[in-house]
Amino acid sequence: MNISEKIISGMKVKARSGLFLVLLFVLAGCGGGAGGEGDGSPVGIGAEESDGTATLSWVAPSTRVDNSTLSMSEIGGYKVYMGTGASTSDLSLYQDINDPYQMELVVEDLSPGTYYFAVTAYDQYGVESDFSVVASKTI
To answer: In CATH, what number is assigned to the domain containing residue 103?
Structure first.
């Protein structure tokens, strides 16, 4: 199978047979660290500082990098990665969600510390997008 890499709008994505997936990642909740509006970073994350919970939510990609339509039936699911380092190389697979309509995950029982999260989308053939923006939550 033909696998290629391209830089599109500053985002490195991998594709098979010309399929590109772009994922917008948003962390929702109250409190915690956040990026600013319009700068491409997550806005708002998590839950109350003492509850040991991070609530992650994201938006499914609706177009390919070439701006052609990507239907929900073409999305196989999402992979949520978590770690204690800010780089994607520090993240490990936390959960594989094989339902394209599930775009929220609650991570519970977190000990005090800072956690980093990223999400990828994959299509029905298993072709995985690049990581979303890495976001953090301090418990």
So the answer is: 2.60.40.10
